[in-house]
From TrEMBL:
Gene3D superfamilies: 3.90.1200.10. Transmembrane segments: none annotated. This is CHK kinase-like domain-containing protein. Residues 122-312 form the CHK kinase-like domain.
Length: 399
């Protein structure tokens, strides 16, 4: 059921699109396990007595009091609106002004929003109408999809790197409100710190038969918090990142076998950070063992996009962001992604019948992070994918 404000916005947008005498229907737009910080609805507008129809996506914030107490829901919606209304349009103008070789265009249009507390929502275009599809979140992606996403992340990050050089005041204006609001939330960080011990315990159980991996994880546990602090150091926060680059926040379009395109969804965790925070988050959630083993190829694809974009606008890529610096960030920070994956991959691989919403996880005042990272009977697929990630990191001496 739409609120009066949501109904008025849908009607306004519909009339702008040529609808006159129309009906509005609302359906659930996602399944359990697909989205956590809110509820997704599919809005269909149909002109009466005609075949004319248009679909929209309505994203509504979770209103449950206990969830909002434990998670910065309002900050998340405020951040996403800021990205859609300010950051991404500024990126578009900048790319056009300087004729950037590979402009970043992989985002949808925001049609309207509300940031009234406990009633936050976003109304967006439904790109399924344009032929975009979402992949199965429980499956790894193939070489073609991995390469495309890495290139698109290169396009996204190159805009920040170029803007810092060519329009530093504009860039500083954008990032002044793009700190990591999770890191500033005491309740969240207290829960995260507690959960890190759980993730190390799970990781050690997964590799208990491998002495080399066990030793590497045990030693890394002692320096983990220092690595987190370094990741947040100003000198390492080089670009505006997506922040939540996993399968369900991407859609792909298949125009023909040689023409694949994509679009990023959900900018709620976007922030200024090391570019590899997007790379390891995506890579470890989507890559199979062969692709993990070939990770350097995909890092080079990512970097080549950045290099060509920077050079196309007259910037010296070697001076601004040399490949050596990307390697240093990967070698230093990718290990954080391993331990994020311990919990996140578990959630991504859950069947709908086993998935729990944040409301269910916090029922009775339970701590959300305790439930999210809870040790349980893991699937063989999860165990194998986590071992593939850990063993790759250990073999390459990243841990």
């Amino acid at each position: 059921m739409l609120t009066d404000e949501q109904t008025a916005l849908v009607e306004q947008i519909s009339k702008k699109n040529g609808f006159e005498n129309f009906s509005i229907t609302v359906e659930q737009g996602s399944n359990k396990g697909d989205n956590y910080l809110g509820n997704i609805f599919l809005i269909t507008v149909k002109e009466n007595d005609e075949n004319l129809k248009k679909c929209f996506i309505l994203k509504c914030a979770e209103s449950n009091e206990e969830v909002r107490k434990q998670m910065p829901i309002h900050d998340a919606y405020e951040r996403e609106v800021f990205l859609y209304q300010t950051v991404l349009p500024t990126f578009e103008e900048f790319q056009k002004k300087y004729n950037m070789k590979y402009p970043f265009k992989a985002f949808i249009k925001l049609l309207g929003s509300s940031l009234e507390k406990n009633k936050e929502f976003l109304l967006m275009e439904n790109i399924k109408d344009q032929g975009f599809k979402m992949l199965n979140r429980k499956k790894t992606m193939d070489e073609k999809h991995i390469a495309l996403v890495m290139k698109e992340l290169g396009k996204l990050h190159s805009v920040s790197l170029a803007m810092k050089q060519l329009e530093p005041d504009t860039y500083q204006h954008l990032i002044k409100n793009l700190d990591d609001y999770f890191m500033k939330n005491k309740n969240v960080m207290d829960s995260f710190r507690k959960s890190f011990g759980i993730t190390f315990d799970i990781a050690l159980k997964l590799v208990k038969d491998n002495p080399k991996a066990t030793k590497a994880i045990t030693e890394y546990k002692q320096e983990f918090h220092k690595t987190l602090e370094d990741l947040e150091d100003e000198k390492n926060r080089l670009v505006i990142v997506h922040g939540d680059a996993w399968c369900n926040n991407m859609m792909f379009k298949y125009e023909d076998p040689n023409n694949l395109s994509m679009c990023f969804l959900d900018w709620q965790i976007s922030k200024i950070a090391s570019p590899v925070s997007d790379l390891f988050y995506y890579f470890f959630s989507a890559a199979s063992k062969p692709i993990l083993d070939d990770h350097r190829i995909y890092l080079q694809l990512y970097y080549k996009t950045i290099q060509e974009n920077l050079e196309s606008v007259g910037c010296n890529a070697q001076a601004i962001f040399p490949f050596k610096l990307l390697q240093e960030h990967w070698e230093k920070f990718a290990k954080i992604g391993v331990f994020m994956s311990v919990g996140m991959l578990q959630a991504f691989l859950k069947d709908e019948k086993d998935a729990k919403s944040f409301v269910e996880m916090t029922e009775g005042g339970q701590n959300l992070m305790d439930q999210f990272w809870k040790d349980e009977e893991f699937s063989e697929e999860y165990c194998q994918r986590m071992r593939d990630i850990i063993f790759m990191m250990v073999e390459n001496k990243y841990i």
